[in-house]
Inverse folding.
C-alpha cells in the first residue's frame, strides 16, 4: 500500500491534473494500492477563506459573488477535462446549494465552525473532480469522504485527531473498498456529529501521515513542484542543494524552525510506525527526490532556515517581580491553547522573549489574555535565521554583522533574531 499526497499546486490547471492522473496510473506503481490524499485546487483555500470573511462581516452579496467565481473556476475544469458525469454534477449542485445556504443564514454561527464547513468544500470539489476524471480515463477508483476516516474533536480550524477512532475507522473501511485506487481529501476531518473540521492550513501532508500510519503501508510520497528537500531555500541561497536522505529527527528539527517543505505534524506518526516519507517532484517523477527515514550517521551539509515576518514578544511581570515558573507556565500555556508555535524562547530573571510567526489574530489573543499580568512589548517585522550543522564556511558567509537582537546557540543549532534593516 502506498499513500500519495498532492498539493494545490500540482492540480492548479486541467493539464496538471491530467499529469497527476497519469502519474497515479503509471506502470511503476501498478502492483500496489494507492490512497491519494489531495488538496484543494490551486489557491482555492484562500478564496474560500475570503468567502468566510465576507460572510462574517455580513457582506453577503460579495461573499456570494466570490463563491460564484470559485464555482465557475471549478466548472471550467470539467469542460477542459471533458468530464460529464451525472453524479459529479449532482454533487457540485449540492455543494453550491449548501454554501449558499451557509452564506445566507450565518446568524448565530460560530466563525470557526462556519470556516470549516465552507473551506472544506475546496478539497471535496478537487477530489470529486480528479476521482471522476481518473475512472473515466484509467481505471475504477473510489472516493472516500475524509470525515469517515479522520475522526476529530470539534476544535474547528485546528481540530485534534482522535487517533483510536481514526485508526479503527480507516482499517475497517479500507477492507470494504474494492478498487486499487482511492481518492480522499487532505486537510479535513469530521466530528462525531458529522460536521467537517480542518486540521490547520497546509494540513494535507499531516492527513497523508495519519492515513498511512493507520494502514499497513510502506511509504508516503509527497509529490511537489520541487525535486525534494534542500538544505536551504534555492530561491534565496546559491549553495542550496538537494539532500537525498534525511532522518526523521532532522526533518522534525527543520520543520520546527520553519522549513516549509513538509508540514511539521507529518513526521511523528510516520516515525512511530517507521514508514518512510518520500518527497519527489511530479514534474520529474523519475528522479528519486528525498527519503526521510530512520537513518543515522548522515553527514549533513549546513541546513539553513530563514523566516521573515516574525514577531518578538517580550513579557515582563507588571510588578517587576521575578518571572517565576508559574508565570512562565501561564505564558506558554496561552501559546499552546492558541496552537501558536514558538520558534525561539529565551528567559532571564525578569523577562521572557518569544519569537513566533506574525499572525494578527493570535497576537491579539496573546495581548488580550496576558496583558493584565504582564507588560508585553512587541517587535514586529523581524527575521529568524536558523543554521544547523554550521561549518566555518557557512558562518563566514551568513554570520550577521549587525541588526542582531538575539543569538542563541546549542551544539548543532545557531539562531539569530534579526531586525528588518
Ligand atoms: N488546501 C489546504 C491549504 O491550502 C490544505 C493543504 O493544501 O494542505 O491550506
Ligand atoms: Mg492548499
Amino acid at each position: 500500500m502506498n499513500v500519495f499526497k498532492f498539493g494545490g499546486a500540482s492540480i492548479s490547471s486541467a493539464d496538471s491534473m491530467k499529469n497527476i492522473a497519469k502519474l497515479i496510473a503509471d506502470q511503476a506503481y501498478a502492483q500496489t494500492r494507492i490512497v491519494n490524499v489531495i488538496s484543494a485546487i490551486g489557491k482555492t483555500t484562500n478564496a474560500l477563506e475570503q468567502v468566510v470573511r465576507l460572510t462574517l462581516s455580513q457582506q453577503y452579496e460579495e461573499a456570494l459573488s466570490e463563491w460564484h467565481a470559485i464555482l465557475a473556476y471549478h466548472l471550467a475544469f470539467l469542460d477542459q477535462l471533458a468530464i460529464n458525469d451525472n453524479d459529479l454534477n449532482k454533487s457540485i449542485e449540492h455543494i453550491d446549494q449548501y454554501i449558499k445556504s451557509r452564506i445566507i443564514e450565518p446568524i448565530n454561527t460560530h466563525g470557526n465552525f462556519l470556516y470549516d464547513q465552507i473551506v472544506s468544500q475546496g478539497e471535496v470539489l478537487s477530489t470529486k473532480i480528479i476521482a471522476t476524471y481518473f475512472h473515466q480515463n484509467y481505471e475504477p477508483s473510489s472516493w472516500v469522504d475524509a470525515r469517515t476516516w479522520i475522526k476529530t474533536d470539534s476544535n474547528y480550524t485546528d481540530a485534534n485527531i482522535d487517533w483510536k477512532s481514526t485508526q479503527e475507522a480507516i482499517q475497517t473501511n479500507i477492507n470494504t473498498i474494492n478498487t486499487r485506487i482511492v481518492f480522499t481529501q487532505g486537510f479535513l476531518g469530521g466530528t462525531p456529529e458529522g460536521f467537517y473540521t480542518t486540521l490547520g492550513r497546509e494540513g494535507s501532508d499531516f492527513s497523508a501521515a495519519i492515513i498511512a500510519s493507520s494502514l499497513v503501508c510502506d511509504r508516503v510520497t509527497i509529490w511537489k513542484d520541487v525535486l525534494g528537500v534542500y538544505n536551504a531555500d534555492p530561491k534565496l541561497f546559491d549553495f542550496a542543494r538537494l539532500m537525498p536522505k534525511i532522518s526523521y529527527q532532522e526533518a522534525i528539527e527543520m520543520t520546527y524552525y520553519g522549513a516549509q517543505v513538509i508540514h511539521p505534524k507529518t513526521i511523528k506518526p510516520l516515525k512511530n510506525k517507521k514508514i518512510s516519507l518520500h518527497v519527489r517532484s511530479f514534474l520529474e517523477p523519475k528522479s528519486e527526490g528525498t527519503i526521510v527515514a530512520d537513518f543515522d550517521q548522515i553527514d549533513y551539509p549546513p541546513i539553513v532556515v530563514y523566516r521573515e515576518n516574525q514577531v518578538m514578544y517580550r513579557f515582563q511581570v507588571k510588578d517587576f517581580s521575578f518571572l517565576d515558573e508559574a508565570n512562565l507556565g501561564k505564558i506558554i500555556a496561552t501559546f499552546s491553547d492558541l496552537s501558536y508555535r514558538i520558534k525561539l524562547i529565551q528567559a532571564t530573571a525578569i523577562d521572557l522573549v518569544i519569537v513566533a510567526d506574525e499572525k494578527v489574530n493570535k497576537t491579539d489573543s496573546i495581548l488580550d489574555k496576558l496583558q493584565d499580568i504582564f507588560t508585553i512589548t512587541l517587535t514586529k517585522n523581524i527575521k529568524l535565521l536558523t543554521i544547523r550543522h554550521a561549518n566555518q564556511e557557512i558562518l563566514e558567509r551568513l554570520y550577521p554583522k549587525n541588526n542582531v537582537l538575539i543569538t542563541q546557540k546549542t551544539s548543532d543549532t545557531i539562531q539569530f533574531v534579526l531586525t528588518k534593516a
Remarks:
- The mean pLDDT is 95.
- The pocket of aspartic acid (ligand 1) is lined by residues 7-8, 39-40, 45, 122, 186-187, 201-204 (CB under 6 Å).
